[in-house]
Design a protein that fits this description.
With 330 residues, the protein is α/β, with parallel strands linked by helices. The chain folds into two domains: 3-99, no CATH class; 109-325, 3-Layer(aba) Sandwich (Rossmann fold). The protein is built from twelve helices and seven strands. It has a seven-stranded mixed sheet with strand order 3-2-1-4-5-7-6, sandwiched between helices. α1 (3-13) runs antiparallel to α5 and α2 packs antiparallel against α5.
Length: 330
């Protein structure tokens, strides 16, 4: 196929443009994010979704409007950073697996961003008929709250660290995005019980709730992760939580991840000033281990998927799950 070589050739020829965009992004990141305590890792899933939007595979108009208003981004930097990929995709009619939506399962780890985006999109949309509240934990630059169906009467809460949430609210206002239907709750997941803070802002634990927890668990300590999951047991029947996680083997640089694990944790610390702390052990029977782990938190596993090899001597890299409150025994 000529499309793939042509795509690669265009990307190589325009790599200096991408490099300039990367430099501009990093300079703004250090100048306007890290100095103010605003999350930098929030850009990772967001920029992936924006590439999906600009290549025409997933619509996200609210996210696109934020391009010009977020602290470490503007339209010019985005044009440099993403322009070559968008151009190559349009000219060649080809997209790498990491940008396809929905993503092909056979793509595995290379499609982690598109697979996780699809997972959270799907579980949210499927839950809207059975829940009355939506909570986005560690919301970052997530814009799903601004793309709910027009007839949606769901109560929506976004929970995040104070500095990041302040920056997002300013960006939403500057972009002209209506956020009047969203209740913003500022908290520190490692320091405060987020559910108590939610309730202080009008959250009703007696109402079935969908909780979206994307790209957060890996930056929390083990106790904070367990406590957050256990919090679902205090909510109404039918409440669910969707979350993703790295493998413990990757986070702790064990076995086959001795080098790549260290590289990832080091790079996230240097670039974003945020440290990967927690991972779920997945080398042996990851699905059964997750069932047991969630059961200890009072939850049942509804959906589970891992990315990466599960052959002997290896372990998955990443996974996501949907958990629900265990029904009461009659």
């Amino acid at each position: 196929m000529i499309r793939i070589p042509a795509f690669i050739l265009i990307m190589i020829l325009l790599s200096p443009v991408t490099l300039l965009g990367s430099i501009g992004y990093l300079l703004k990141l250090f100048a306007f994010n890290r100095s103010k305590g605003i999350s930098g890792t929030a850009y990772e899933p967001y920029l992936g979704r924006m590439l999906m939007h600009d290549t025409g595979v997933r619509n996200d108009m609210a996210g696109r409007k934020l391009i010009s208003t977020l602290p470490a981004m503007n339209a010019f930097i985005w044009m440099l950073l993403a322009g070559p990929t968008i151009l190559a995709a349009r000219v060649c009619g080809y997209l790498p697996s990491g940008l396809r939506y929905p993503a092909p399962r056979r793509a595995g780890v290379s499609a982690v961003l598109s697979l996780r985006t699809e997972m959270f999109d799907t579980t949210l949309n499927e839950s809207l008929e059975s829940v009355e509240q939506v909570v986005i934990l560690g919301a970052g630059w997530d814009t799903r709250a601004y793309a709910l169906p027009q007839n949606s009467n769901h109560r929506v809460f976004e929970v995040d660290a104070p500095a990041t949430q302040k920056a997002k609210r300013a960006a939403l206002s500057k972009a002209g995005i209506d956020s009047s239907h969203v209740t913003f709750v500022a908290t520190d997941f490692n320091q405060q019980p987020w559910l108590e803070t939610l309730q202080a802002h009008g959250f009703d634990p007696a109402i079935p709730t969908y909780i979206l927890w994307e790209g957060v668990t890996m930056y929390l300590d083990q106790e904070a992760v367990a406590d957050s999951l256990h919090s679902l047991t205090t909510l109404a029947e039918g409440s669910v939580i969707a979350f993703d996680f790295f493998s413990e083997e990757l986070v702790k640089a064990k076995g086959p991840f001795f080098l790549i694990g260290r590289l990832i944790t080091l790079s996230f610390g240097l670039i974003y000033g945020e440290h990967i702390i927690w991972g779920f052990p997945m080398r042996i029977k990851a699905g059964e281990s997750m069932v047991e782990y969630l059961s200890k938190q009072g939850l049942a596993l509804s959906q589970f998927e891992v990315l990466g090899s599960i052959s002997k001597g290896k372990a998955p890299v990443y996974g996501f799950a949907l958990a629900e409150k265990k029904p009461r025994k009659p």
